[in-house]
Specification:
heterodimer; A: alpha/beta; 8-stranded mixed sheet; 12 strands; 23% strand; globular; B: MetI-like fold; 69% helix
Chain lengths: 330, 299
């Protein structure tokens, strides 16, 4: 890919101050998103997915949270040091976000139209009338019937799927370059989920908006994403093209994740689960963070920190000593 | 033969247009269904009307003395009897509604505005601002409130206006703490994070998203506090720290009637009933508002 990336995250490190000292929630995370690309970030709860996305928006509650190090480059501009004013220009305008709970991410006291036009008025400096037109156009774009009526309705009058459509319409109304979707379909039932994912994919194609999809659902990843980043305990443990990852997972954790997905075909046996839990952030200071739960762990895994190794050319990286014979990522 | 054709569509399209309503309107509708709350509202409205139209309703002026008619028992001519100056108690109680309601409304308005502002700032911004504001509230709440009010009036000098200020001041921490805790929970809501993610300024989020969603307890507490404020004003009046002599403030009337308790109990009973009814009205109304605005509190 010759194009320079829209968003580049380099060695991002975000930590939280707790009563037990400083805890690193996101540790040296790096990835890039190109224009029109959909990447997935997967991992169990508490592995740092959401903190990564909040860090990019610089919405990590501060204190106790803090971006300790690394760079976030948005079209080449480093926004880690950007002031609040610049961040407000970026939020909603260049990077937009949709959330997990469509039921609670709309203010219950205002009409849909009023909430939708808020961002448009801030970023696009439009009059109320023009903002209304844009909002209406977006509502139609996300496939909501009776868009005019919905503009005048309150959130409680809409279903979960409709609200998530409204959230998507709202997020895309200022034509952002990157859309961060933090588990956008977790709270929805399966049929609505597939509708929403289909809609996002379609909008990604037509509007060329890059999407960063945060999820713990590998099915969502398979359906939506081109590249996948697997996170574990705050670190990137594997990154690959989606086909590669599903066919040929390298990291024992990724293998475990894929084995834990129920398969409708074949014999019904007990579902596989990775033994143990995600370690508490900050509890592992030395060695591979997955070592405790890894069936291939050996002495070295507990003693040394593995780095990201490159697999099969440039596209597949993995943080595991089993793949050390390949080149180290510079 | 006539063939009846059912040309109705099989499913009526849901017409949402005419039932679009804000959560406030829904709360109002639920309030209107609450009979006890309506009784309370009725009492309050009744006293408000009395206060507004006092000059037309009252048969006499507040200071029309008639020594010949001193300490008359209630009769057709003087419904509530007369006091030791021969003044018509019915008229004085009606004019007293003006003072008590005025003091109640203004004092609560003052403490609600100041308290909410401090509480919302403390709750939203947190950190040292919260610490300072919350500790000031704690200090104020450490005093018995009526004692604090007496102290404030003692410093400012006894008058109705100063009593009002004192009542407003002592109620500030109640409002402040209430809205602070509400803001603490509202600011965790996803729509606040969503508003930030849209690029809104803090102040705008505060007044457009946080404040409206924190209003419900303020309205409830405000209504209940008017009742309390009226009692507090009466208490200060009773202690001689509120309204001055000729003013028919209810507490002051009670205080003046103390010595007549055996001789002419009506001088005390009617202002007392007036206070009781007004406060009851506000309390019933406040309870109804709480049920309507916060259905989870209902049991």
């Amino acid at each position: 890919m010759t194009q320079s990336p829209v968003l580049e995250v380099r060695n991002l490190e975000t930590s939280f101050v707790t009563k037990d000292g400083e805890v690193t929630a996101v540790d040296q995370v790096s990835f890039t998103i190109h224009k029109g690309e959909v990447i997935g970030i997967v991992g169990e709860s508490g592995c740092g997915k959401s903190v990564t996305s909040l860090s990019i928006m610089k919405l990590v509650p501060q204190p106790p949270g803090k971006i300790v190090g690394g760079d976030i480059l948005l079209n080449g501009e480093n926004i880690v040091g950007a002031n609040e004013k610049r961040m407000r220009e970026i939020r909603g305008n260049e990077i937009a976000m949709i959330f997990q709970e469509p039921m609670t991410s709309l203010n219950p006291l205002f009409k849909i139209g009023e909430q939708m036009t808020e961002g448009i008025k801030i970023h696009m400096k439009k009059s109320k009338k023009e903002a209304n037109e844009i909002a209406l156009k977006m509502l139609k774009l996300v496939g909501l019937p009776r868009a005019e009526a919905i503009m005048k309705e309150y959130p409680h009058q809409l279903s979960g799927g409709m609200r998530q459509r409204v959230m998507i319409a709202m997020a895309l109304s200022c034509n952002p370059e990157v859309l961060i979707a933090d588990e956008p379909t977790t709270a929805l039932d399966v049929t609505i989920q597939s509708q929403i994912l289909g809609l996002m994919k379609e909008l990604n194609k037509t509007l060329q908006t890059s999407i960063m999809m945060i999820t713990h659902d590998l099915g969502v990843v398979a359906q939506m994403c081109e590249r996948v980043i697997v996170m574990y305990a705050g670190q990137v443990v594997e990154e690959a093209k989606v086909g590669d990852l599903f066919k040929n997972p390298k990291h024992p954790y990724t293998q475990g994740l894929l084995k834990s997905v129920p398969d409708i075909r074949g014999e019904h046996s007990r579902l596989y689960s990775i033994p143990g839990n995600v370690p508490k952030p900050g509890s592992i200071t030395k060695g591979c963070r997955f070592a405790e739960r890894c069936e291939f762990a050996h002495e070295r895994c507990v003693m040394e920190d593995p780095v990201l190794f490159m697999e099969d050319g440039e596209e597949h990286t993995v943080r595991c000593f089993l793949h050390e014979k390949r080149r180290e990522v510079s | 033969m006539e063939v009846s054709v059912n040309n109705k569509p099989p499913i009526q399209p849901k017409n949402n247009e005419d039932k679009v309503q804000s959560p406030w309107v829904e709360a109002l509708q639920s309030f209107m269904k609450n009979k006890i709350a309506l009784v309370g509202t009725g009492i309050v409205v009744f006293f408000i009307l009395l206060a507004i139209f006092a000059p037309f309703i009252a048969p006499q002026g507040i200071n029309e003395q008639n020594m010949a008619n001193r300490l008359q028992a209630p009769s057709a001519e003087h419904w509530f009897g007369t006091d030791d100056f021969g003044r018509d108690i019915f008229s004085r109680v009606i004019f007293g509604a003006r003072i008590s309601l005025w003091v109640g409304f203004l004092a609560v308005m003052g403490s609600a505005v100041v308290g909410s502002l401090l509480g919302i700032i403390a709750g939203y911004y947190g950190r040292w601002i919260d610490t300072i504001i919350s500790r000031i509230f704690d200090i104020m709440l450490a005093f018995p409130s009526i004692l604090l009010a007496i102290a404030i009036v003692a410093v400012l000098g006894p008058s109705l206006q100063n009593a009002l200020i004192a009542i407003a001041v002592i109620n500030i921490p109640n409002f402040g703490r209430l809205i602070r805790s509400k803001v603490l929970s509202v600011k965790q809501e996803e729509y606040i994070v969503a508003a930030k993610a849209v690029g809104m300024k803090n102040n705008r989020i505060l007044f457009r998203h946080v404040l409206p969603n924190s209003m419900a307890p303020i309205i409830v507490q405000g209504t209940l506090a008017i009742g309390t404020a009226i009692i507090e004003a009466a208490a200060l009046g009773f202690l001689g720290l509120g309204a001055e002599a000729p003013n028919p403030e209810w507490g002051k009337m009670l205080s003046d009637a103390r010595v007549l308790l055996i001789q002419a109990p009506w001088t005390m009973i009617f202002p007392g009933i007036a206070i009781m009814l007004t406060v009851l009205g506000f309390n019933l109304m406040g309870d109804g508002l709480r049920d309507a605005l916060d259905p989870r509190m209902k049991n």
